[in-house]
């Protein structure tokens, strides 16, 4: 699933092409991606002007002159400004200058209109790149295991499996560590790791693990720098001990049993 760096990369690659454009027509073909009346959604978007495009957590927020279009890419969603339609294209926007396509083979993504902020967006926690260390430490006062907590979008918005594993590895924290047991020093190390890794991943265009690309069809490169995620059985880059994989919060979790301590 595209996480914060991937979604931020998509937003940056699409924003300049969409801001100020007017929607002349839109078509939707998936009852899963666009639940409810697709004809009503198309009518709501007809003639609307796109004011801005931004990210909130893993959501793409398209502010219109009337209402808000919220896009979540799910597992395999792509927002593209070029290309052609195919069997996986479930949203086509004809603009007064250009086109916008939404493709999603597994159809786990969502395109939703709301009069104001989406209810799902309202429930999100703070942005990882904006939260202060003091607030981060306060929010850690829970008995939840660290990996599960980092995946909780009401705790921080935008982290997923990749960047939770990478951040915990960089901070030397075991994924099963209880959050409220972290010392001030370890909490600061984790806060610094999260912000540093996310920033660097954005600079490299995110991680292209399967079929993720930005709005121009370009792959990211941060997967070349993964230190834990997806490296089960490979030697730890720090100590040489094989990376292990366990299940935490129903998600495959990669860590070094020597470098990451509870």
Write the layout of secondary structure elements.
Blueprint: H1 4-18, E1 23-28, H2 38-45, E2 50-56, E3 59-64, E4 68-72, E5 78-80, E6 89-95, E7 99-103, E8 110-114, H3 119-122, H4 133-139, H5 146-151, H6 161-171, H7 184-203, E9 244-248, E10 251-255
Antiparallel strand pairs: 1-6, 2-3, 3-4, 4-8, 5-7, 6-7, 9-10
Can you characterise this structure?
This protein is α+β, with helices and mostly antiparallel strands. The chain has 2 domains: 119 residues, MutM-like, N-terminal (N-terminal domain of MutM-like DNA repair proteins); 123 residues, Helicase, Ruva Protein, domain 3 (Orthogonal Bundle), CATH 1.10.8.50. It is 27% helix and 21% strand. It has 7 helices and 10 strands. The strands form 3 sheets. A 4-stranded antiparallel β-sheet has the order 1-6-7-5. A hairpin with a 3-residue loop joins strand 3 and strand 4. The relative contact order is 0.15.
């Amino acid at each position: 699933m595209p996480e914060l760096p991937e979604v931020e990369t998509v937003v940056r690659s699409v924003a300049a092409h969409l801001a100020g454009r007017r929607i002349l027509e839109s078509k939707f073909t998936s009852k899963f991606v666009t639940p409810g009346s697709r004809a009503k959604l198309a009518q709501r978007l007809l003639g609307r002007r796109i004011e801005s495009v931004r990210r909130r957590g893993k959501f793409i927020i398209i502010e219109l002159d009337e209402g808000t279009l919220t896009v979540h890419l799910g597992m395999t969603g792509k927002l593209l400004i070029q290309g052609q339609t195919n069997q996986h294209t479930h949203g086509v926007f004809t603009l007064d200058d250009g086109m916008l396509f939404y493709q999603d083979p597994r159809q786990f993504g969502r395109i939703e209109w709301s009069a104001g902020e989406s209810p799902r967006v309202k429930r999100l926690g703070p942005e990882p790149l904006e939260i202060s260390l003091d607030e981060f430490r306060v929010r850690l006062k829970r008995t939840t295991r660290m990996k599960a907590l980092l995946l909780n979008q009401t705790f921080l918005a935008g982290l997923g499996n990749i960047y939770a594993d990478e951040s915990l590895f960089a901070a030397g924290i075991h994924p099963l560590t209880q959050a409220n047991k972290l010392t001030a020093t370890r909490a600061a190390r984790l806060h610094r790791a999260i912000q540093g890794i996310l920033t660097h991943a954005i600079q490299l265009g995110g991680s292209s693990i399967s079929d993720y690309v930005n709005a121009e069809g370009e792959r990211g490169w941060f997967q070349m720098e993964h230190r834990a995620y997806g490296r089960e059985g490979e030697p730890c880059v720090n100590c040489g001990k094989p990376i292990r994989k366990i299940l935490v919060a129903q998600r495959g979790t990669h860590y070094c049993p020597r470098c990451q301590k509870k």
